[in-house]
Amino acid sequence: xxxxxxxAIIFLFVFVLxxxxxxxxxxxxxxxxxxxxxxxxxLIQQGVTQSDYSLTGALLAITTIGLLTVALSxxxxxxxxxxxxxxxxxLILLEDGEPIAANLRRQRISLEEIQAEARLAQIRDLGxxxxxxxxxxxxxxxxxxxxxxxxxxxxxxxxPAA
Length: 162
Known about the structure:
Largest sheet: 5 strands, antiparallel
Strand order of the largest sheet: 2-1-3-4-5
Oligomer: single chain
Mean pLDDT: 82
Number of strands: 5
Distance between the termini: 40 Å
Low-confidence stretches: none
Number of helices: 7
Radius of gyration: 20 Å
Shape: elongated
Strand content: 5-15%
Structural class: alpha+beta
Order of helices and strands: HHHHHEEHHEEE
Number of domains: 2
């Protein structure tokens, strides 16, 4: 039972930590980040199982983390009010080509990063963008202005995975 409790505590800690890190950081893994992720996994394993190297201990820890993952997914699906807490909400970074400084600061995203993502989405000038939205998965979606005379709706472009 001790392993189940430790696994649940570590799971909740990792969940809160990933929410605090921010979407953008988690969507772009550099080589160092990948190594850090592997080391973190090993440290988590040591914290959960302590010196229990038994198959039963490993199965208990993995099952606990798996069940908690499914439970959070189910809660997010069934309880709409929890969804922003569990998954986050899209965040507008640019509106009518103008950066929203508070949102950029909050997510630690520079204007240069948005410009690079816009170029990847074949957008030359941020003035063409009606909205740039940081999605919950860390990708930036661009909705371009529609300057046509027919008054159609904006065209939505999503940048490639960062």
